[in-house]
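Quick one: structure tokens for this chain, please?
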Amino acid sequence: MRVDFGSCCCGELEEVYRAFAVLCVEKHANRALLKAGDDAPEGHYALRDALHAMARHAAIPPDFKLALVPSTRPIETVYRETQRHLRAAGFNAWVFRGENEAVEWLEGRATRGVTAS
């Protein structure tokens, strides 16, 4: 599953992330890529909240992988903090600098020992 979104306000980001979490559960997704396309870092904390809610209400598949691709430095900061929280909660979530690297990791094709940062 891939979610690539552009400019959104904080409220819209919350809706996108909630819908993403529900879709992951309903479709039994085992991998997903989120690519931020705006510069509203405060709204991206909703990802952590949505996925924590998802984990409380449904079993997360053990092979579920989440790749996060930020569009700006401020969003990268939020995604890295979110990565730490999600990994502590048992998610296999990583932040990547580029989409190609993220897709390679999701598909198990990472080369040269590159996994994630």
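The first strand starts at residue 2 and ends at 4.
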